[in-house]
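Hi everyone,

Forwarding the result from last night's run.
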Amino acid sequence: MLSFNQLLWLFCSLAFILLSQCTNAKNLKSSCNTCKQIADNFSKGLDRTKKQNFGGGNTAWEERALSKYETSEIRLVEILENLCDSSSFDCNHMVEEHEDLFETWWFKRQNKHPDLYKWFCVDTIKVCCSTGTFGPDCNACVAGSERPCHGNGVCDGDGTRGGNGRCNCDHGYKGEFCLDCMDGYFNEIRNDTFSLCTECHTSCKTCTGLTNEDCEKCKTGWGEDDEGTCLDVNECLNDPPLCKEDQYCLNTDGSFSCKGCDKVCSGCTGAGPDKCQGCAPGYQDTEGTCTDVNECEQTDAVCTAENQECVNNKGSYICICASRYEEQEGVCVKIPEPEENEAETVKRPEEHEDL
């Protein structure tokens, strides 16, 4: 039996191997993407310089005496200088490392190999593979390089020197070859090399056709009738109720939701003041609809303190001091009139007569 230290060493070794493989796969994919971008930018550079010339005064003489601008080293240099952003280390490093290869292709290989991407990235520095192939040796993806994954998925590592070639199936498809259908889909067409998966009716978990009569198994929230058709289950009929006392149940296809009652209700069966089971405090039933009670108009006064007035609010009321009164320490007292204030200040003129 392995000791703890041996098990720990084994675990760390496996983790290191897996991490190295993931890092290597990422680097391989990154290198291919960089190379592909360089090739794309080179093509754009060709288009950008297509109608340019040496820039001198006599282009015809220059092309007779020197060479055609179209195939000149000057044009190549102008293109190479604009292949990468200054901040892209990987791009600039790859261009600098293989600058001689660009010159070789430009002067010697361009006519025979017009596809720079294939010549440079795939065949020469070998950081990419042709579409439909993967890995160090550019092996064909699952189901072949012409239609990887039978056209229903993406081959892992497709076009790069990394990956394992397995299929990552499109939504609706599953299986090693992406020919099988996932739950909720059925094979409308199927043979050894082609599969068309079509979505089932929304009520079906699995099915053989498009309608709710073709379900093999119903989804949660749906149930079979006597004829095997999947129909919506109305959860709002559940006993005991699924929603709280201040909520009502809203049935939806295959599910339900709980919605808050109107604030005028004490329990409800739906939205609005006319769907109340009872009225909240401060409201009353008026011909089946809960309406506000005007407490200020009731026979028995609700504001009983001296010099108070009642103000009705929705579902309630407040007591305030009447006009020309203000609250002081919980009591409504009269606001002094301006004349009274003046009378208090003009009382003692005789005190100044002897001066």
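The first helix runs from residue 4 to 48.

Cheers,
N.
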